[in-house]
Design brief:
mainly beta, three-stranded antiparallel beta sheet, Rieske Iron-sulfur Protein, four-stranded antiparallel beta sheet, globular, single chain
Length: 112
């Protein structure tokens, strides 16, 4: 995981609601994550389905359902709550995404 304080993006660069993926490193050192914005809140998670251990997005930055109320895994259509990453339906129901602490400092989303 990138170090504390790593800048991800300006909060204004995220749609409301909206999501964006971030990839750090390569090979075994690769770290894949994403953030979701809802109003003034930003939630961040490791980009890995707890069922198949595959990235959630088949298409870049496509992490939300069409109505933008849930996170969706494009592999098996599992649905997760935005606020805590808890899976509400699909093959990993009852499991959760791995959360990453973030903070917003001077309008920039950073790893906390």
């Amino acid at each position: 995981m990138p170090p504390t304080g790593t800048a991800l993006c300006a909060i204004d660069a995220l749609d409301d609601p909206g999501a964006k993926g971030f990839l750090f490193g390569e090979g075994k050192a690769r770290f894949d994550m994403f953030v979701v914005r809802q109003g003034d809140q930003v939630h961040a998670y490791v980009n890995e389905c707890p069922h198949a251990f595959t990235p959630l997005d088949t298409w870049p930055d496509r992490f939300l359902t069409f109505d933008e109320t849930r996170i969706i895994c494009s592999t098996h259509a599992a649905l997760f709550r935005i606020e805590d990453g808890y899976c509400t339906s699909g093959p990993c129901a009852g499991k959760s995404l791995i959360a990453i602490d973030t903070e917003i400092v001077d309008g920039i989303v950073r790893i906390a």
